[in-house]
Specification:
With 228 residues, the protein is α/β, with parallel strands linked by helices. 36% of the residues lie in helices and 21% in strands. The chain has 6 helices and 11 strands. A 9-stranded mixed beta sheet has the order 2-1-3-5-4-8-9-10-11, sandwiched between helices. A hairpin with a 2-residue loop joins strand 1 and strand 2.
Length: 228
């Protein structure tokens, strides 16, 4: 699928349809930030984060891909993997397919810009957070860091058996989230600590299934601290 940079088609055909926001500095990118949308969303939705962050990260290029599948409950949006089943094994199987595609996509980007993986950060919301965590830890190339909003670890047993790298992780969640309950934040914090992974968390008061303004600011601070 083709990608677009500043209204012009990029030279590279990425495996995921992508909205690209180029560096404000107009220099060759020094950092890559990949933003993964939630269930039923798209790259355009999540690109709002990039627009908020780009002036504070002027040498970063932002990639906002659409998930690999049309969403089963919202045909105008996309999904990273199908959630229409209640079978954990099937959900895991679907997520592994998506995770492999995301890792291949990251490899494409790094190769295209001739940058090392320590210059790359993954950011995800909801299902995008779930797949970002899984792909980052299974990726044999250690990326710089992961920021996850309102997500969870899909399957702890599977992930424990397949960890290949341990990037820094910052997870944030709303305490009134009824879509992905906040208990998943506490479970993830305990899990990553046991795995020896550097984990930071933030629980927002009176916040539902969304990214609050404070979360946008904290995410930016985390990226600047680790990438710059």
């Amino acid at each position: 699928m083709k990608s677009f940079l500043g209204g012009y088609q990029s030279m590279t055909n990425y495996i995921l349809e992508t909205k690209i926001i180029k560096p404000l500095s107009e220099n060759k990118p020094k950092h890559i930030i990949v933003l993964c949308h939630g269930y039923g969303g798209d790259g355009q939705d999540i690109s709002m984060l990039a627009i908020n962050w780009q002036r504070f990260l002027p040498d970063a290029i932002f990639f906002c891909p659409n998930g690999p599948e049309v969403c089963s409950v919202n045909p105008s949006g996309f999904q990273w993997f199908n959630l229409s089943t209640e079978q954990d094994d099937k959900i895991l199987e679907n997520s592994i397919t998506a995770e492999e595609k995301l890792i291949s996509y990251l490899d494409q980007i790094l190769n295209n810009y001739n940058l090392d993986s320590h210059n790359l950060a993954l950011v995800g919301f909801s299902q995008g957070c779930m797949i970002s965590i899984q792909a980052a830890l299974k990726n044999k190339q250690k990326i710089n860091c992961v920021i996850g909003y309102s997500g969870k670890v899909i399957n702890q047993k599977y992930l424990s058996e397949n960890i290949n790298s341990k990037p820094k992780i910052f997870l944030m969640h709303g305490d009134n989230d009824t879509i992905v309950p906040p208990m998943h934040l506490l479970e993830a914090k305990e899990y990553f600590s046991k795995c020896g992974i550097k984990i930071k968390t933030k629980l927002f008061k009176n916040c539902e299934h969304r990214i609050p303004v404070e979360g946008v600011s904290l995410g930016l601070d985390f990226l600047r601290k680790n990438l710059l």
